[in-house]
Amino acid sequence: MERKRNRGRIGHPMKILALCTGNPERLPGKSYKTGIFKHPVNGAVMIDAEGLVGDAICNRKHHGGVDQAVYVEGSLTLDWWAQELGRPYEAGTFGENMVISDLDNRDVAVGDRFAAGDLILEVTACRMPCATFAARMADPKFVKRYTAAARPGIYCRVIRGGVVEPGMPMEYTPFSGDKIAMPELMETFGRRLQGADRARYLAAPIHYKLRTMLESQADEAY
């Protein structure tokens, strides 16, 4: 029987299972360094507008920034991947900064908020896999596999910073507007949106790069 959707949102309190940071490391066979190698941190971590303090972000053209400050994975999604790939993974293997318990990435939408202590995160975008991710997973076909799974990771901006640590309870607040879930955002990535769909996206607190792209489409329509 399929696991009931929305677990963790209704009747299941969430908590921070892991916080992960990394240092610049070189991928085997590559000339560049990457911050994708994340490892769990023991103890408290400060999260500010740029993300987890002390976490390495090497390619700032495509990673990091205020609308992509914290990368979140849900524990239910990571459990699914462990079963799919036939082996467990340490938190941080996907390059995530935070693992939240009882959360399925497919249930998360743009504008949803997560709060722990003083920290407030707001969802802005989904994770789009790249060649660095495939190299990290030692699978040249992993980009296609990850895309086909339609369970993308979650990027958040920091509405209010704070100090958090594993085990802290996490409060979830859904976006009050029209829902743009992570799988839909992945499916429409790079596509031209028309009329009502474009208006729906622009009404949500999406990543500024996607907003700029959609606004330029609107300008071109006139």
UniProtKB/TrEMBL annotation:
Read off the PROSITE patterns from this record.
MOSC
Q: Where is the MOSC domain?
A: 39-173
Q: Which SUPFAM superfamilies match?
A: PK beta-barrel domain-like (SSF50800)
Highest taxon of the lineage: Bacteria
Q: Name one GO molecular function term.
A: catalytic activity
The molecule here is called MOSC domain-containing protein
Its taxonomic placement starts with: Bacteria, Pseudomonadati, Pseudomonadota, Alphaproteobacteria, Hyphomicrobiales
